[in-house]
Design goal:
Elements lengths: L1 H4 L2 E3 L2 E2 L2 H26 L12 H11 L7 H10 L5 H9 L3 H6 L18
Antiparallel strand pairs: 1-2
Helix pairs in contact: 2-5
Length: 123
């Protein structure tokens, strides 16, 4: 809850992490399970780099694509108050900062925006 409460939706409005907590946890659990399933499914396969991305990077890019959105500020304000789902940006970025697999895939270094010192673990 502390992590998501810091994210700004629009203007000065931040995510109501008490409202979104259940879905945020579900999103993180889903991504962890998807990663585990993908790694298991591809463990004996020879995966190649494509379009300048490693297979691991493509996994995370592919996951992020479902959340592409372009909302008006007034819509973001309304959803910040009523929607139990965090905005798409944070349903992606809020998850991957908690995964060391993402950090490794993109060679992120400590102090960079996509590296979180205190990762949230659910299992």
């Amino acid at each position: 809850m502390d992590q998501y409460a810091q994210y700004v939706v629009v203007d000065e409005i931040k995510i109501n992490s008490k409202l979104t907590e259940g879905e945020d946890i579900a999103d993180l659990g889903g991504l962890i399970l998807a990663w585990m399933a993908w790694k298991d499914q591809t463990k004996n396969m020879r995966l190649e780099n494509r379009d300048g991305l490693t297979p691991e990077q493509r996994f995370f890019v592919g996951n992020a694509q479902w959340a592409c959105e372009n909302d008006r500020p007034e819509n973001l304000r309304m959803h910040a108050i009523t929607d139990p789902h965090s905005p798409g940006k944070y349903r992606v970025n809020g998850l991957v900062v908690n995964l060391p697999e993402f950090e490794k895939a993109f060679a992120c270094k400590a102090g960079q925006p996509m590296v979180k010192e205190n990762r949230c673990r659910i299992w």
